Amino acid sequence: MKLLFAAAFALGLAGCAAKGVEQYKAEQPTLDLKTYLNGTLDAWGMFQGRSGEVQKRFHVVIDAKWTGDTGVLDEHFKWSDGTTSRRIWTLTKQPDGRFIGKADDVVGEAIGEVAGNALRWRYVLALPVDGKTYHVDFDDWMFQMDDKVMLNRSYMSKWGFNLGEITLTFVKR
User: How far is it, in rounded angstroms, from Cα 62 to Cα 123?
Assistant: First the structure.
């Protein structure tokens, strides 16, 4: 019985191991962040709680500009409840091809890895909820579909527990 439990536990842990972005290295079109995230983009998205219900919808307009290996993404959000917000990302391409991202509500740095048509961002966001701020882990996956469209799925968690997901569609103008 102990052996059966140990085997089931090991299989469960193996199933939880996330595959890296490298699994998409052969996928096309090849994502070039400096090209795709340049100019004006629109994105439409929704936040779903851990049981799947849509809790908030939003539209965001992103003005993106690059100077050398540094890009600035100025994001303007309009939420379904009538509120607005803004986030300004500074992205820096590293010599090894990874990207480092910073924003006022990101705790530390976001780490981005690109392979093929995919980008994986991992970061901690200081998320305000009902007058309190929580540090929430984001595992953010973006997939370029063509020269105009990118799909994004973000997984939110705290202490390893799922809090919900964000789904976005980006359209380059």
Answer: 19
The span from the CA of 130 to the CA of 153, in Å, is 24
Q: What is the pLDDT of residues 57-78, one digit of tens each?
A: 999 999 999 999 999 999 999 9
The count of other CB atoms within 10 Å of the CB of residue 12 is 9
Q: In which domain, by residue range, is 42 found?
A: 26-172
Q: Record the pTM.
A: 0.86
Residues of the chain with pLDDT under 50: 3-16
Q: What is the 3-state secondary structure (H, E, C) of 9-56?
A: HHHHHHHHCCCCHHHHCCCCCCCCHHHHCCEEEEEEEEEEECCCCEEE
Domain count along the chain? 1
> What is the rounded distance in angstroms from the CA atom of residue 46 to the CA atom of residue 17?
26
CATH number of the domain at 148, please.
Answer: 2.40.128.20
Instruction: Say which DSSP state 130 is in.
Output: T
Task: Indicate the average pLDDT of the chain.
Answer: 91
Is 19 a domain residue? Answer: no
Query: CA 33, CA 142: separation in Å to the nearest integer?
Result: 11
Residue 96 to residue 141: CA distance in whole angstroms: 20
At 143, phi and psi to the nearest 5? -130, 120
